[in-house]
Amino acid sequence: MPSILRFMRSLSGRAGWHSTRVRGIAAMLTYIGRCLARWREHDAWLAFLESPAMAGIASIDRVLPERYQHRYINLGWSRPKRLQALRDHYDFALARFPRPLFHMLYRERQVLLGKLRLRDGEDLSLILKAPFRRSREGEMSISLTDANGLQISYATIAFVDGGRTIVVGCLQGAANNAGRDAVRELTRQCHGLRPKNLLLSIVRALAGAFDIERVLGIGNAAHVFAGIPNKVKADYDAFWMEAGGVPQEDGFYELPPRDPERHASEIESKRRAEFRRREALRGAACERVVAAFVPERAPMALAA
């Protein structure tokens, strides 16, 4: 009986079913069929979502109960693999994130982690966001947002493999037509540091703070939106290879889990001042993010 009641509760209030009556009925029948096909696993997942630590999150994130039934992070992942990845992430987050951070992220849906002062004196906000609507690329995003509220770039990640691996399912720039110009301007304001490189440094800093030795980036062919016109505009393969990534058979790129050391002595003397400002900004960003997750392990500045 508890299983049936949990399942019935999972049927209520899912906005995705109600765009039109026909599509709503079709979505409901698809969901029911997929649940019945793996009833035991799905019931265990629903029971976890109703546990005290997770209570209320599924009523806010209506897609969470069924997220694993759709494309998720890697196009080649099976349904059981997708479900395990979700469970891994939330198990890790419950065990390792500070409780107030977990609450704000998954119940209030975003957290301001800190701000960086840019070249022109404006602030760049570091915002942690929960999945939005039918997100398919991970369970939290680190967003770079300018003083006008425009999201310039973001990385969407998840902690999987029992918390031993960070996967980067998305690394994108600004939306709409502002994209290239906004990214170019932010790069200038960050003393030549590209937004995507800054985000990758932050992800690696998190890996270091949590003693995670594996960071994976999704490749073009395995991206969940691969093959869908105009959905994936970034060249993931090129970026991961530039960052030292090695392609894997499962469609990921295995990345060096830590940022490389950077030394001013290796830089042309006339560019060293800008190098130091750039690395100070990178270090400050990593410190602010890590301090929110693991206060006692905030990294030192990365510039030498």
Write a brief caption for the model.
The protein is α+β, with helices and mostly antiparallel strands.
Describe this structure in words.
The chain has helices at about 1-10, 20-35, 40-50, 55-60, 80-95, 100-105, 180-190, 195-210, 235-240, 270-295; strands spanning about 110-115, 125-130, 140-145, 150-160, 165-175, 215-220, 245, 250-255. It is elongated, with a radius of gyration of 20 Å. Helix content is about 40%, strand content about 15%. It folds into 2 domains: about 1-70, no CATH class; about 100-295, 3-Layer(aba) Sandwich (Aminopeptidase). Strands 1-2-3-4-5-6-8-7 form an 8-stranded mixed beta sheet. With about 300 residues, the chain is of the alpha+beta class.
Per-chain topology:
Layout: H1 2-10, H2 21-37, H3 39-49, H4 57-60, H5 79-96, H6 99-107, E1 110-117, E2 123-129, E3 140-145, E4 151-160, E5 165-173, H7 179-189, H8 195-209, E6 214-218, H9 236-242, E7 246-247, E8 252-255, H10 272-293
Parallel strand pairs: 5-6
Antiparallel strand pairs: 1-2, 2-3, 3-4, 4-5, 6-8, 7-8
